[in-house]
Design a protein that fits this description.
Length: 204
């Protein structure tokens, strides 16, 4: 099992930043179909800010890494996804408390709390065609098997794919009504990338 120490969370966010950078064009294309074509740009800016904040501040605990990263996403991303992802990480980080290393069970619980905070902030539930459709199955998978990072990755990827036939009920895509059907949600897609980066980090 991976050791969930400060370095693990730094490596996760750095893998996430690399994935966002690599996939930014695809995320923006997905957002062009049902939004305003800025999701890749938004997250690229956000994760670049996270990367430089982590280099400058060197937070000393897993919780502090996630709280700092979340705050930077909130302050650097103009779109809806910034406050939502920022809330996910800040809330998960607060749940981890001051420990220098956390158990998989603690992290699974923290992720669940983070996803619940995103739902409270944005009002989305599973099936609304948002990032929740990838985050919630990932959190569920880890709740069932806290060391099952690969399963969480598959659950998030499956959740993102399953947004294609859905009609958006939250966010900008909801303005399209029925015309949002047939497109994969950009935020669910980036969420799957973040969980894939987590699985990758845990496997190394
Ligand atoms: P914006 O829509 O402000 O341009 P982004 O393009 O960066 O922001 O992010 C869009 C994504 O944010 C959507 O694909 C969706 O997954 C997610 N999103 C938008 N509104 C909500 C909400 N209320 N709850 C959860 N996720 C949301
Ligand atoms: Mg957008
Ligand atoms: Mg926008």
């Amino acid at each position: 099992a991976p050791v969930l120490d400060t370095e693990f969370f730094r490596r996760w966010l750095s893998a996430a930043a690399a994935a966002v950078d690599r996939e930014a064009d695809r995320l923006t294309e997905l957002d062009a179909a049902i939004g305003d074509a800025d999701h890749g740009t938004n997250l690229r800016r956000g994760f670049a800010a996270v990367t430089s904040a982590l280099q400058e501040a060197a937070p000393a605990t897993p919780g502090a890494v996630l709280v700092l990263a979340g705050g930077r996403l909130i302050s650097s991303v103009g779109g809806a996804s910034g406050p939502l992802y920022g809330t996910l990480l800040r809330s998960a980080g607060k749940s981890l408390g001051p420990a220098g290393e956390v158990s998989p069970e603690q992290f699974a619980k923290a992720l669940q709390e983070g996803v619940a905070a995103v739902s409270r902030l944005g009002g989305a539930v599973p099936g609304d065609k948002t990032m929740i459709d990838a985050l919630e199955p990932a959190a569920q998978a880890l709740a069932e098997d806290p060391e099952g990072f690969a399963s969480a990755g598959s659950a998030a990827a499956g959740g993102a794919l399953a947004t294609v036939p859905l009609r958006a009920r939250k966010g900008r895509a909801s303005y399209l009504g029925e015309r949002s059907i047939g497109h994969q949600d950009p935020g669910a897609t980036s969420s799957a990338l973040l969980v894939a980066a987590l699985a990758e980090t845990a496997a190394r």
